[in-house]
Amino acid sequence: MEVAPRILGVLFIGGGIWAFVHPIGAFYELASILGFLLLLKGSLDFTVAVASKELNDLWWMGLVVGILEILLAFWASQQFFAPRAALILLWVGFGAMFRGFTEILLAFEVRRMTNEGATV
Fold first, then answer.
1. Chain centroid offset of residue 77 CA
2. Structural domains in the chain (count)
3. d(CA 83, CA 28)
4. CB atoms within 10 A of CB 76
5. CA 43 to mean position of chain CA atoms
6. Where do runs of H (alpha helix) occur along the chain?
7. Confidence (pLDDT) at 17
8. Is there a contact between 39 and 73 (Cβ–Cβ < 8 Å)?
9. What pLDDT score was predicted for residue 1?
10. Alpha-carbon gap, residue 117 to 24, rounded angstroms
């Protein structure tokens, strides 16, 4: 058996114990990591939307989502605890909405392309 999974397991157990002992610090760090991930994902969504403009009719959707994710990342970078707490709660809702809207619009796009393919 490899050593890396064991080391990760020990680190995760140690992190879990630390989170129980210092819940406010753990929450603060979780919000910091979430802010960084939002900035990264928003930048990637923005870049992919601009790069696929000629191939994808729904490129603007990725652009809007990318901009909103970048704005949320800057909101998460605040030093105040209350905005970070609100971010974690709101991000779950925003993430579900972004994902849902994207899936619905992509489903309509697939349906349109299927209908166009059937008539040609």
1. 15
2. 1
3. 11
4. 22
5. 11
6. 3-21, 23-51, 59-76, 81-119
7. 93
8. yes
9. 57
10. 55
